[in-house]
Amino acid sequence: MKTDIPYNQLMDLEWRRQESNRKAQAYSRCVIALATVATVLLAATALYNILTQKGPSSHPTPSSSLHVGQGESCSDPCKIILLESIPEGLEFNSSTANPSIYQAWLNLMSEARSSIDIASFYWTLTNKDTGTHHPTAYQGETVLKELAKLSGQLSVRIAVNTPPESQPQGDLRLLNDSGADIRTVNMRQLTTGVLHTKFWVVDKKHIYIGSANMDWRSLTQVKELGVVVYNCSCLAADLGKIFEAYWFLGESQSIPSPWPTSFSTLYNKDTPLQLALNDTPSSVYLSSSPPSFCAAGRTPDLQSILSVMDDAQSFIYIAVMNYLPTMEFSHPKRYWEDIDTQLRRVAYERQVKVRLLISCWGSTQPVMLSFLKSLASVYDFKTKLDIQVRLFVVPASPEQKEIPFARVNHNKYMVTDKVAYIGTSNWSGDYFVHTAGSALVVNQTASQSQEPTVQSQLRAVFERDWSSDYSTPVTQHTNLKNIC
């Protein structure tokens, strides 16, 4: 037989091929054996961790406690409390009531031993800005007095939106003179937006986040909602990273890309922090806006909202001051459909019940009602399309009407059959694209506890407000002048 390769070379090639196959088979057996050993070791380690698990401590557990698709666990004894500011004269025929934001701020200051970090939009805790000398301003004045006292005793840092010249700055000057360290963040230069966030981090283990500004009206003349979380260093450390981003921007006045790894987080919508809130198993994370402020791992606020809606199975309840599918402050005008489209989609595709409770007051834009009427029209009993919209009006006496920027439902939250979302942003495009905001997202569906969940408490607040005498259904004939 004639070949192009000598016979002895063919035999040599065949021997090498067979030898290669033998080595490959041996290698495969070795890999399988090693994988088996590794699996046994991992199982043994997991069993050891379970058997030797310790009680609550002040520090998160090591990274070896990561759960696939769940995130890192935390053994802190975290206590969460839903808070409200109910305006003077607003009364409900309901047993649903929550502790006040004012009292929570006083408690946080009394608990403080080393540090208080506050991210804020503006400061008007006295009513010098209004010239009204309203007696209910005493709550804001008390907060300012106590914070000024603490500024000389421990570390007080304030990150605040760069105030325009027309805005009162007496509170900030007082705090600065008392020892507080203040940095202004020039959001107009950075993103064309504002620093709209409202949160506290105390001693790196207690936090407050919610709709209330550092404004006396937010305690007695404006309806607000937020939460305080005590003894939760793992969550406080993560919110602290968002504060440190503002603090960094207040000095650098430029946005890093990418952000240094010290600002990164492990906790997001895909891998939330696992902890016990009020002894209830919870999955928790913090979202932030705008996206340019989000370091690696941080879920942008808009993505958080869309994700919460996407996970809802039976209902979505939303209470926000403003709802506009537009870039509210952009010129020329620009439509922005992200949230609006998602609501229509889940209502149509999955027959999720959608309720929106939107504020109606002197500053309500007429165009908002047009968009709300459009949403409200997506209702058909026969096809089970169920989107309903109501306007909430905070009543005001003639004297209260004289107080500027007051008597409004300033809430910014969403609750579904699974999740409680408590944020700091109004719902129009600018707040998610250009403006700095943040939110706490809590899922307690794994709860077997008798304790009420954050979700159930938030739902009770929404249903109380929705069915109250202060809410009015939006129909095609609704006229703002007749309601607001």
UniProtKB/TrEMBL annotation:
<dbReference type="GO" id="GO:0043202">
    <property type="term" value="C:lysosomal lumen"/>
</dbReference>
<dbReference type="InterPro" id="IPR032803">
    <property type="entry name" value="PLDc_3"/>
</dbReference>
<keyword id="KW-0472">Membrane</keyword>
<dbReference type="GO" id="GO:0031902">
    <property type="term" value="C:late endosome membrane"/>
</dbReference>
<keyword id="KW-0269">Exonuclease</keyword>
<keyword id="KW-0540">Nuclease</keyword>
<keyword id="KW-0378">Hydrolase</keyword>
<keyword id="KW-0677">Repeat</keyword>
<dbReference type="Pfam" id="PF13918">
    <property type="entry name" value="PLDc_3"/>
</dbReference>
<dbReference type="InterPro" id="IPR001736">
    <property type="entry name" value="PLipase_D/transphosphatidylase"/>
</dbReference>
<protein>
    <recommendedName>
        <fullName>5'-3' exonuclease PLD3</fullName>
        <ecNumber>3.1.16.1</ecNumber>
    </recommendedName>
</protein>
<feature type="domain" description="PLD phosphodiesterase">
    <location>
        <begin position="191"/>
        <end position="218"/>
    </location>
</feature>
<keyword id="KW-0812">Transmembrane</keyword>
<comment type="similarity">
    <text>Belongs to the phospholipase D family.</text>
</comment>
<dbReference type="GO" id="GO:0031901">
    <property type="term" value="C:early endosome membrane"/>
</dbReference>
<keyword id="KW-1133">Transmembrane helix</keyword>
<feature type="domain" description="PLD phosphodiesterase">
    <location>
        <begin position="405"/>
        <end position="431"/>
    </location>
</feature>
<dbReference type="GO" id="GO:0004527">
    <property type="term" value="F:exonuclease activity"/>
</dbReference>
<feature type="transmembrane region" description="Helical">
    <location>
        <begin position="26"/>
        <end position="51"/>
    </location>
</feature>
<dbReference type="InterPro" id="IPR050874">
    <property type="entry name" value="Diverse_PLD-related"/>
</dbReference>
